[in-house]
Amino acid sequence: MVQLHSAKDNLPKAGTIIASSFTSPLDPLYLAGIFQPIFTRSYPSTRKVERITLFRAILLAFSAPRTSPAPTAKLVTLRHLTTENPNKIICVFPETTTTNGRGILPLAPSLLSASGETKIYPVSLRYTPQDITTPVPGGYLSWFWRLLSKPTHQMRVRIATRIYNNSRSQDSPSSSSSASSSKKSSPFKAIATGYDTNIFDQLDAQNGLNGGGASSSEYDGGMDVDVGEGDGVSAEEQKVLDRVGEDLARLGRVKRVGLGVRRRLSL
């Protein structure tokens, strides 16, 4: 078992980004209590995010998903948020909506707006029993009844190895000199490491790809990702989102699914 005090280097800290799963209104409460982050809302149609309060983050779990922001929404990039708030953690829900905890939805492109020097920590939150997770949109009372009718609940949190957005080195963030030399391009490097520590569970610490998944040779060649200004995602950019999605699926021991928010709304 990896103790919390011995895993400080593997925990999100100020200036980093949490890419969290989203299954319950309790998720923002837990994240706020432990990390005190700035919460954001992502949309499938844009790389920018909307900064929201803790209360709005909780209400998102009861709300129907949206494919695009409201006309009055104030959108910013993750790079801007981390620059303006260097002493805070930024929390992103890249699936953009709650799930039932049995799969990982396609991720929004919002993570691609982060700086190439920023560390991203995929975080998976799971509950036992699972009936306290996803409420029906608007079903406040029924969800509270299920929550309060159980004497105890178990929460399991797993944090993946940090992902460095750096094409030059997998073990360190990009240097300021390399960042200034490419203003139009923001390189991203995805580390194929899976998770190496579960600080709240009885899992053994792992390094490398012991948990399965892509082989290290698949990523050894490096990956330079140009985030650009558009909202379209290139094949190289998609690899970054896939790496985060694979980590979330591995942490939660679930599969990735192809049913995104747009298809869910069309059904």
From TrEMBL:
Domain of life: Eukaryota
GO cellular component: membrane
GO BP: any one term: lipid metabolic process
Main location, first listed in the record: membrane
Alphabetized GO MF terms: acyltransferase activity
Protein family (similarity comment): Belongs to the 1-acyl-sn-glycerol-3-phosphate acyltransferase family.
PANTHER family on file: LYSOPHOSPHATIDIC ACID:OLEOYL-COA ACYLTRANSFERASE 1, PHOSPHOLIPID ACYLTRANSFERASE
Protein name per its UniProtKB record: Lysophosphatidic acid:oleoyl-CoA acyltransferase 1
Underlying gene: vps66
